[in-house]
């Protein structure tokens, strides 16, 4: 396991302390690059918001703004605002802070299951099964298996969580955002002709680009099974003004389109 990452399961990471009045606190396993992993912040924020929502309403969409870098090993304070509880949707706003400073805000929507038309127009790419590739990971919580691509602005990867979670309607969404946030800097780096860097090398003096997440949007289309491999396809769609926009589509083994994700990153040459 990479330096800086402690032994902690995903379920333990999402075991929040209830501080009362819709306030929660949490700790995470850390990261090999020395600051808080964005996927951890979003996963814990969704979990805190879900704790204030009826269990028949799983997460359906979320938007996170990363305000400032967070510190590893420092307790995260999560304050939930109950914005609305309607007939079909609930809306929550979460403010995440450390040592009195806001490091991120999250808006999340929760939606009851409805009987409606189900039409998928986004088709999964034709790729080999994950069993034929080696795993790469910096954490014991998950693993990823990169797939070859001739497009420098595109990253394909199989990802999965390495544990079974208790039955909870919010946990699949928490698992997805934790897995996916690890891969967003790959497409813009490839577009600039930069090599694939390991997470522990993010601060290496020879690295010629600097990337930092600015905001993240997630739309959950269909139920997610976090205990099997998920196929994630990332593309850098535009780059300007020191910012890169990356979109991702998420599929299961059968090719079902499960989620769409978009992230904007600060991306500068050193």
Walk me through the structure.
The protein has one domain: Porin (Beta Barrel), CATH 2.40.160.210. It has 270 residues and is mainly β. The chain has a twelve-stranded antiparallel sheet with strand order 1-2-4-5-6-3-9-12-11-10-8-7. The chain has four helices and twelve strands, in the order αββαββββββααββββ. The protein has helices at 10-13, 38-50, 171-180, 186-191; strands at residues 17-20, 23-26, 59-66, 76-85, 89-98, 101-111, 142-147, 154-161, 209-220, 230-240, 243-251, 257-269. The relative contact order is 0.17.
What descriptors fit this protein?
12% helix, 4 helices, Porin, 270 residues, 12-stranded antiparallel beta sheet, single chain, mainly beta, 39% strand
What do we call the CATH topology? Porin
Supply the number of helical segments: 4
Question: In total, how many beta strands?
Answer: 12
Query: Which CATH architecture would you pick?
Result: Beta Barrel
Output the CATH homologous superfamily.
Answer: Acyl-CoA thioesterase, double hotdog domain
CATH class: Mainly Beta
Helix-strand pattern, N to C? HEEHEEEEEEHHEEEE
Strand content: 35-45%
> What topology, given as strand order, has the largest sheet?
1-2-4-5-6-3-9-12-11-10-8-7
Q: Helix- and strand-based class?
A: mainly beta
Number of domains: 1
Residue ranges: pLDDT <50 for 5 or more in a row? none
N→C terminal distance: 29 Å
How much helix is in the residues?
10-25%
Strands, helices and their partners?
Blueprint: H1 10-13, E1 17-20, E2 23-26, H2 38-50, E3 59-66, E4 76-85, E5 89-98, E6 101-111, E7 142-147, E8 154-161, H3 171-180, H4 186-191, E9 209-220, E10 230-240, E11 243-251, E12 257-269
Antiparallel strand pairs: 1-2, 2-4, 3-6, 3-9, 4-5, 5-6, 7-8, 8-10, 9-12, 10-11, 11-12
Helix pairs in contact: 2-3
């Amino acid at each position: 396991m990479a330096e800086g990452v402690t032994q902690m399961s995903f379920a333990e990471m999402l075991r929040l302390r209830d501080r009362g009045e819709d306030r929660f606190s949490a700790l995470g396993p850390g990261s090999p690059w020395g600051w808080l992993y964005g996927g951890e912040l979003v996963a814990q924020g969704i979990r805190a918001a879900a704790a204030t929502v009826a269990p028949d309403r799983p997460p359906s969409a979320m938007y996170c703004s990363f305000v400032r870098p967070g510190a590893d090993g420092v307790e995260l304070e999560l304050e939930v605002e109950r914005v609305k509880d309607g007939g079909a949707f609930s809306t929550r706003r979460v403010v995440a802070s450390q040592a009195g400073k806001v490091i991120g805000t999250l808006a999340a929507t929760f939606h009851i299951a409805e009987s409606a038309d189900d039409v998928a127009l986004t088709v999964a790419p034709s790729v080999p099964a994950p069993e034929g590739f080696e795993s790469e990971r910096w954490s014991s919580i998950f693993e990823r298996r990169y797939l070859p691509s001739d497009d420098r602005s595109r990253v394909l990867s199989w990802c999965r969580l390495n544990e079974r979670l208790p039955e909870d309607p919010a946990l699949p969404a928490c698992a997805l955002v934790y897995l996916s946030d690890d891969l967003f800097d790959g497409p813009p780096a490839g577009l600039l002709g930069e090599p694939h860097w390991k997470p522990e090398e993010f601060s290496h003096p020879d690295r010629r680009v600097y990337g930092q997440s600015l905001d993240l949007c997630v739309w959950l289309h269909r139920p997610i099974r976090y205990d099997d491999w998920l196929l994630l396809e990332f593309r850098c769609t535009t780059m300007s003004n020191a910012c890169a926009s990356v979109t991702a589509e998420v599929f299961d083994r059968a090719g079902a389109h499960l989620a769409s994700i978009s992230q904007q990153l600060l991306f500068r040459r050193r």
